Amino acid sequence: MDDIAAAANVSKRTLYSRYGSKTQLLIARAEHGTQRHLKAITVDRRSGDLRNRLLKLCRKMLDAALKPEVIGIETLATWIFERKLEAQLSIHRNPGASLIQDLLTEEARVRNIEEDLPFLAAFIFDATVTGPRARILLRKDLANTARAKTEHLAQTMDLLARAVPLLEPELQHAPKR
């Protein structure tokens, strides 16, 4: 706390009055970091079909998930969840899946297709972000290059589209709002 107070140019007393405890300071840091990185992940909801919008969104999330700062925030979030302190968080457990679900919900409404969107969004997130990230950082069998990531994501999306009607390209000709 002394080092944090010094770096922030405030007293330790000010830190404790603002955050209440070390745990609350860590929770605030996890939320702030998550929100800061999520703001940078945007996709134009009106340009292109659902597949291309999802590919752009997932690529941005994968690139962000590979940043050392995001890995640190994830480690901190894991610490918070392991101590069952998530009730004190304002962020979702998987904000990336929430971004995907927003795109899916919009498309499902336009095309009047029923799907289990929370499950599908989490599945797409795992297939396009969690899995490739593990392959890049841990297994090291996927190169951390633009080309390798683009090819992997396109292949993954093609596979998913064969199984999920909402993602099928030939159905994506419905007029957009």
UniProtKB/TrEMBL annotation:
Domain of life: Bacteria
Alphabetized Gene3D superfamilies for the sequence: Tetracycline Repressor, domain 2 (1.10.357.10)
The keyword DNA-binding is assigned to this record: yes
Family matches, as Pfam families: TetR_N
HTH tetR-type domain span: 1-37
Keyword annotations of the record: DNA-binding, Transcription, Transcription regulation
UniProt-listed InterPro entries: Homeodomain-like_sf, HTH-type_TetR-like_transc_reg, HTH_TetR
PROSITE patterns with a match to the protein in the record: HTH_TETR_2
Molecular-function annotations in GO: DNA-binding transcription factor activity; transcription cis-regulatory region binding
Entries under PANTHER family matching the protein: HTH-TYPE TRANSCRIPTIONAL REGULATOR BETI, HTH-TYPE TRANSCRIPTIONAL REGULATOR RUTR
Protein name: TetR/AcrR family transcriptional regulator
